[in-house]
From TrEMBL:
Keywords: Coiled coil. This is Zinc-finger domain-containing protein. Residues 25-52 form a coiled coil. It comes from the Bacteria.
Length: 491
């Protein structure tokens, strides 16, 4: 693995890492001298910080702190400045409060000036009332097509030019010269009550977004006249429509097509790409037996890196799954010494055979040159929680197996892991007859973890668990022992 960062080393030193990450960092420190040196440096800095004297001066000190600073400044200025400058306005301007206020006013003035200069000013367009009134005036003109193009803009002549025979509209309109009028046209002309109004010299136009040309807006039809087509494509000549369709796209149309949503890739492509880079899952099977070759059932088998645990079946066999690669296998059972061996998971790895050695209840441990009895392992959890459902009974068996492993290996982290499993079971058995027993085992696991590696975090957890158990436990030997543990933690 890569070297742990300073944050991870600090969390490892403060016991703030989770169980899996703590084990990974611990294995790395066993093989890396540079990381061990960094950890030793962190420990030296922590010990140096603990020797620093901390004293709270109190609120009274801060109430008079500013006045003391000002008095000291006045004394220093009076000793250094000439006598003429220590009186009048000169002394007033030397006050820190006055200088701070003046600086704030100056900064506010600068900000206001920048805002006023950078603010955009909009100027209203000039408009002459006389010219506007003249432009609104209308004058009668001679009737006929020639008058319509008298005051037109560029492009308006094409709109009012007579249609040729090839460009005659299909839906009816002005017939070609010399052609006989249709009956429908004669009826329309007969039904017209008033002639069309003469065009004015000033009329409204609009600019076409596609071609950029100015197009004249048609005046409203006279009463009784046939309604004009509302769409531009219906009123424009056919040749004009063809010319516009053949023109290249404008900038607006090109931008709209560029921003159009592209088709999404096939859903299966991402899954295939992800599956091609994923590591194949590994598998490890084996059997657990004693020194005589007898199969051991209900033995706890745990993968440290993968975080997977199972129990052996009646034939002492087990199978575990996890990510391919090296890992550490821990096998434990009550009455036997735990076995720890390095294994490798893969799709086709050979089976492992684990032999557990029996231990004597009177076996003693040698710690620091002196011997003391091994901590008593808690009884198996299967019998005390046999009435629980299968899912909860598995949690109890896992917690009991971890606590037995912790009692054999005497590792505080193992007791922490066991306590986490007991807390998980406690959330599901609150209010039942099993709550008291779960609280007792949880309190014992928290106390053992504090006993092996005492710190503030473990002391708080042990105090909380022991207090919760003592408030519910009846009088007896178990309650007396828990009370003794609580006194030891509080000392």
């Amino acid at each position: 693995m890569k070297h742990p960062s300073w944050e991870e080393l600090s969390a490892y030193l403060d016991h703030a890492l989770d169980t899996h990450r703590w084990a990974v960092v611990a294995r790395h420190l066993e093989d890396c001298q540079a990381c061990r040196d960094d950890l030793a440096e962190l420990e030296a800095e922590q010990r140096a910080l603990e020797r620093v004297v901390r004293r709270d001066p109190g609120d009274a000190y801060f109430d008079t702190f500013l006045a003391g600073v000002e008095a000291r400044l006045d004394v220093d200025r009076g000793a250094k400045a000439p006598a003429g400058l220590t009186r009048g306005w000169a002394r007033w301007w030397q006050s820190p409060r006055v200088l701070a206020a003046a600086g704030g006013v100056a900064a506010l003035a600068v900000v206001a000036g920048v805002v006023l200069v950078s603010r955009p000013w909009e100027r209203a367009p000039l408009r002459d009332a006389t010219l506007a009134a003249r432009g609104a005036q209308t004058a009668p003109g001679p009737a006929g097509p020639a008058a319509t193009g008298e005051a037109g803009s560029p492009g308006s002549a094409a709109d009012v030019a007579p249609l040729t025979a090839n460009e005659a509209p299909a839906g009816g309109g002005t017939p070609a010269p010399g052609a006989a009028p249709a009956p429908a046209d004669e009826a329309d002309r007969a039904g017209s009550a008033a002639p069309a109004p003469a065009p004015a010299r000033a009329y409204e136009v609009r600019r076409d977004e596609a071609s950029g040309e100015a197009v004249r807006l048609q005046p409203p039809p006279a009463p009784g006249a046939p309604a004009a087509a509302k769409q531009e494509g219906a009123s424009a000549p056919l040749s004009d429509l063809k010319r516009r369709a053949a023109q290249p796209l404008t900038s607006n149309e090109a931008a709209s097509r560029a921003l159009a949503p592209q088709p999404a890739p096939a859903p299966g492509a991402a899954l295939e790409a992800r599956a091609s880079g994923a590591a194949a899952p590994g598998r490890l099977c084996g059997e657990v037996s004693d020194a005589t070759g007898r199969a051991l059932r209900f033995a706890s088998v745990v993968l440290v890196r993968g975080g997977v645990s199972v129990q052996t079946d009646d034939g002492g066999r087990f199978c575990l799954g996890g990510p391919s690669g090296p890992d550490t296998l821990v096998v434990s059972l009550v009455g036997f010494r735990p076995a720890r061996l390095a294994v490798r998971l893969g799709p086709d790895v050979p089976e492992v055979s684990v032999r557990l050695e029996t231990v004597s209840p009177l076996e003693r441990l040698s710690v620091g040159g002196a011997s003391r009895p091994r901590a008593e392992a808690p009884p198996a959890a299967a019998g005390a929680f046999a009435a629980l459902p299968e899912s909860l009974r598995r949690i109890a068996e896992s917690a009991g197996s971890l606590q037995r492993t912790a009692a054999d290996t005497r590792q505080a982290r193992a007791y922490d892991a066991s306590a986490a499993e007991w807390e998980r079971l406690l959330e599901r058995v609150r209010g039942t007859s099993h709550e008291l027993e779960v609280r007792r085992r949880l309190a014992e696991a928290r106390f053992r973890a504090w006993e092996l590696d005492p710190d503030a975090r473990r002391a708080g957890a042990a105090t909380e668990a022991l207090t919760a158990y003592l408030t519910r436990a009846p009088a007896g030997a178990e309650r007396n022992r828990a009370a003794e543990w609580l006194d030891r933690v509080r000392r």
